[in-house]
């Protein structure tokens, strides 16, 4: 089965209809039902539970936020999708560096060469200093291999490229020990020119000393995998943040408890009693609820079982929501960008469930801090402010064996259609299905990355479609790679993805430059895209509404 990470980025019409018309969960209070029904994408609220009076203060002590839940199932060292090495870069999903290999890496190498050459000419990089390509979230090291291979080939007959290759060190940074091992194994032939280190991309300065690096901080499809806050933005600016409540049916728990140590069973039972007594508005005798510690202990126990995937199936998840001010860094974010969120809400005239990636802020600011001179190149799917709030497409997607598509012939970015041409509803956005067995991703807000980068001394020198990687290079993508030419299916796959690379507008490229690096540098593409909102599009009524919403957000 062909499983591609980029499929169904355009929401099928029937799914949009169901989102707009779906009824809210039946067990909400009447007031909550009304407010949730006003949301543009109400079905994103997942099985919401009603809290007991005055229980809000206990929620943070009992349950993980959505961000904590995502971080746990993605990166826990024993069972996390990435950290455990469970991820498959071929069967779970594919990326452009894989399918357009080796050309994707060659295009990036050409762009980095121009940056290096400019720094040498500007005098911000001497011949004795190392030029470092620091790739964060490097997966299995495929992109590093493509770039280093190209450097070696170009160095054979071009003295300037030979100087570039000799001066360059490539370092992969990844949270997953298993992936770091894979990176070293794949690129061992490059010797001391390649290194792989463990590091968290949201804390670059923990791995690299501030102002110690000259070169480029590179990432491909990294920020989309950062853990995010799930947030409800009401039409009037009221904000709520999601917390996750794991559970099992009483019948499922009776069966599952036989697979876990007695101490874990006791922890689960105690957690359920406390949650039922102190948190929920009414008791649910048919359900066993787990707090944060009980969920973690249960998952660690199940990770040691032989049929791990089957043991996960009975797990269910619910959501509860608190005012966003419960998380200070989230409240600070809304205050900082109150005007922009207010204008988007006023433009849409409806509330929305959205996903806030504060890791983007930490990554880009950290990248700026570790650079003494150089660039940050970010390649990912996403949009500007205008695109990440509106619901013209899905913003959270999951990829892996629990979310495989049934149609082997769906092309990237196309809706899944039945034989009669009607859209088929496909669930690729349930982060609670098969936890730890699938990737969870969200769209990148490139406007946010640009704004936060500017605060740390990064100027944006280019933002536009991913196809701009080819600008100014002689890399020919129209020649099918040799290793694909004897297989029709591999040729068709390549041509399909090449079409999307040339014509698609979902994947973007952001290039930022550290202050005082090279005043003469210009990215070689003439079709940039805007990062700011067009405020002139707002009507007078929308502007008045935006002003009122901004006051609410600024007061968090």
Radius of gyration: 24 Å
**Total helical segments:** 20
Shape: globular
Structural class estimated from helices and strands: alpha/beta
Q: Determine the strand fraction and express it as a percent band.
A: 15-25%
What is the residue-mean pLDDT, rounded to a whole number?
87
Provide a compact summary of the structure:
This protein is α/β, with parallel strands linked by helices and 556 residues long.
Write the layout of secondary structure elements.
Elements: H1 13-21, H2 30-37, H3 56-62, H4 66-75, H5 96-99, H6 103-122, E1 131-136, H7 142-155, H8 159-167, E2 168-174, H9 177-186, E3 194-198, E4 213-220, E5 229-233, E6 239-249, H10 250-256, H11 262-278, E7 287-289, H12 292-302, H13 308-312, E8 316-323, H14 328-336, H15 338-348, E9 352-356, H16 358-370, E10 371-383, H17 385-389, E11 396-399, E12 439-442, E13 444-445, H18 446-455, E14 458-465, H19 488-503, E15 507-514, H20 540-554
Parallel strand pairs: 1-2, 1-4, 2-3, 4-10, 10-13
Antiparallel strand pairs: 5-6, 5-9, 6-7, 6-8, 10-15, 11-12, 14-15
Helix pairs in contact: 6-7, 7-8, 11-12, 15-20, 16-18
Q: Which terms summarize this structure?
A:
556 residues, alpha/beta, Rossmann fold, 8-stranded mixed sheet, 20 helices, 15 strands, globular
Structure description:
- It is a single chain.
- By secondary structure, the protein is α/β, with parallel strands linked by helices.
- The chain has 20 helices and 15 strands.
- Strands 1, 2, 3, 4, 10, 13, 14 and 15 form an 8-stranded mixed sheet that branches. Strands 5, 6, 7, 8 and 9 form a 5-stranded antiparallel sheet that branches. A two-stranded antiparallel ribbon has the order 11-12.
- It is globular and about 75 Å long.
- The protein starts with 12 loop residues before the first helix and ends with a helix.
- Residues 1-31 and 405-427 have low confidence and may be disordered.
